[in-house]
Amino acid sequence: MRDRAELVIIGGGVLGLSLAYHLARMGLGDIVVIEQGYLCFGASGRNGGGVRQQWSTEDHIRLARRSVAIYRRLAAETGFNIWFRQGGYLFLSRDAVAAATLERNVKLQNSLGLRTRLLSPAQARRLVDGLDTSGVELCAYNPDDGVLFPWPVVWGLARVATSLGVEINTFCRATAIDVQGGRIVKVVTDRGAVATSRVVNAAGGWSSQVARLAGVELPNRPYRHEILVSEPLKPFLEPMVCDLADGTYFSQTMRGEICGGLSDPLEHSSLNTSSSLRFLSRMSASLLRLLPRLGGVKILRQWAGYYDETPDGNPVLGRTAGVEGFIQLNGFGGHGFMLAPAVGQIMAEWLLRRVREPLVERYGLERFSSGQLQRETLVIG
Ligand SMILES: Cc1cc2nc3c(=O)[nH]c(=O)nc-3n(C[C@H](O)[C@H](O)[C@H](O)COP(=O)(O)OP(=O)(O)OC[C@H]3O[C@@H](n4cnc5c(N)ncnc54)[C@H](O)[C@@H]3O)c2cc1C
To answer: Tell me: domain 86-145+221-309, CATH 3.40.1360.10, correct?
Structure first.
């Protein structure tokens, strides 16, 4: 491992690697990435691959649009097929409040150029054969949302970054961040130390732990989120379906499997990736209610990963007051994969040009003490 680098990124998930990829392509390859496990060990290797542009805030809509544009060309840029399929996202609302939220969101999304439209339950049934819409009030559908296979995204970003000079160290854990006189001087790992003046905390569900290595307290907390996948079926399901009532979401992957999860109000913050029978039975019941034709389908596998949650559902980006050179890139909850390409690009431009970046300022750590929160309401999970 190199003993000195311009920048050290702690966390080899999609956010850390997207930043390394964009920085290296912009000319800064003197980067060391430190990953405690294998690539895809964290949430980036455990998620549902959903990529939607339907959001409730302008920031998220713009970031997701920019990310979709990057995902559309990423396979060509990295040489890895990411299985990106734009079959749309269909949101279901079951009460007047949720329906009004969808109406408001669709207006905002249309004003920003998205093709989202409201659908009646009957129109939604035409889109998803066999969908049970009893109790559904109103739906929102964007044909340009989609799903991808997360692993080749991670591998592709890593391959290009490595080819441009980035050193990625897997099975290497950051154990200390040495801060002297309020400035970062080195990162200590279980395989040696790297001298540097800038460290990026892209540690996902572990971001609070990593921040503490530099004496910094983040409001982020990790929550287990479970997910499952069925045996492969002949393709029949175009969009990702999301039920706002209980947070159930499911899609059909390019390999034919039904892949999905749902929120659990009883989940407490913890670093726990075990699989539960509770999830299996709740998810099976929810799938059966929404799509009774799945009754005979076999579940092949279930697993879990972390949502790195912040109090307002938005990420933590940028500088850390009191520790010069400590940069946050975390807190992406259940939607970091779909925002990673754009956020990585914006953060890379900000780091290289050292100019003001409104997005980075809005999502700075100080907002939690100043109370200037910008709440995202269309969060699943
Ligand atoms: C079940 C599930 C479904 C999801 N579905 C979706 C979806 O459909 N669409 C979507 O956009 N998002 C989804 N998400 C969220 C998405 O996966 C995350 O927001 C995203 O992957 C976060 O990326 P990251 O790079 O911040 O974190 P991670 O991928 O977790 O990467 C952080 C890395 O830091 C490493 N690390 C931590 N501590 C240290 C240390 N001390 N030293 C070295 N390395 C360290 C970890 O090993 C880890 O690999 C889902 C998440 C889960 C769990």
So the answer is: no
> Against a cut of 0.85, is the pTM above it?
yes
**Which of 36, 224, 263 maximizes ligand 1 atoms within 8 Å of its Cβ, making it the mutation to test the pocket?**
36
Residue-wise pLDDT for 236-250, tens only, equals 999 999 999 999 999
Q: Is 222 in the pocket of ligand 1 (CB under 6 A)?
A: no
Residue extent(s) of CATH 3.30.9.10 domains in the chain? 86-145+221-309
Task: Please indicate whether residue 305, judged by its CB atom, sits closer than 6 Å to ligand 1.
Answer: yes
Q: What is the distance in A from the centroid of ligand 1 to the CA of 14?
A: 7
Strand partners, 9: 33, 200
The residue type found at 306 is: Y
Per the DSSP assignment, residues forming a β-bridge with 305 are 225
Q: Is the CB of 8 under 6 A from ligand 1?
A: no
Centroid of chain to Cα 312: 15
Token reading at 249: 């979401």
pLDDT category at 372 given cuts 50, 70, 90 is confident
270-298 tens-digit pLDDT: 999 999 999 999 999 999 999 999 999 99
Contact 258, 294 (CB under 8 A): yes
CATH fold of the domain at 7-46+151-220+312-370: FAD/NAD(P)-binding domain (3.50.50)
CA-nearest residue for atom 52, ligand 1, is 47
CB 10 near ligand 1, within 6 Å:
yes
| 307 vs 310: CA distance, rounded Å | 9
Amino acid at 216: V
Sequence-ordered alpha helix ranges (H) in 28-95: 58-78
* Domain boundaries for CATH 3.50.50.60 within the chain: 7-46+151-220+312-370
Check if the beta carbon of residue 241 is closer than 8 Å to that of residue 262: no
Distance between CA atoms of residues 20 and 165, nearest Å? 10
Residue 149: how many other CB atoms lie within 10 Å: 17
Give distance in angstroms: CA of 97 to centre of ligand 1: 31
